[in-house]
Amino acid sequence: MPPPVLPPASIVRNSLPRVDFLDTFCLDFHLGRLLTASEAAQACFQQAPAWVLWLMRLRNALVKMLGLATTLPPGLRALQRPLVPGDFVGPFRTFAASPSEVLLGLNDRHLDFRVSVLVAREPHATRVFMSTAVQYHNLAGRLYFAVVRPFHAAIVPAMLRACRARLLAR
Which residue, among 97, 101, 99, 131, has the nearest Cα to 114 in the 3D structure? Predict the structure, then answer.
């Protein structure tokens, strides 16, 4: 199966001055109801799988010595309203929000990144896309992401599956 293609309307492509890395994952959600990007984003980042939290703890222990941010995603109490710019979802700041797409991310001295959660209504299901854009600031950013990238490729689909399970359980 070919990798998913980022919908052309997504704002993640132009969310950083320069995009050095961009990927997209998607999953169909058969909820039987409308889903907003805000609801999907909050469900996706509400609680990471245990193995992801373990990797984040390991990452924090290693990067603390380099002076990089060591935020660990806390459990998230879902907001009783749609996300707006400035809101935090776990450790990530909301940069933009519409009913169909939420743009989250962080800026650090080694790299900046944005994560888009985009909801597309298809005839057979609601498709949720999670796309990540990264801009490196220096060699440390390139090296850091080279180490993180294989884990990222496993974490994002796991987050989407956990999100779908969480929403189906409601």
Answer: 131
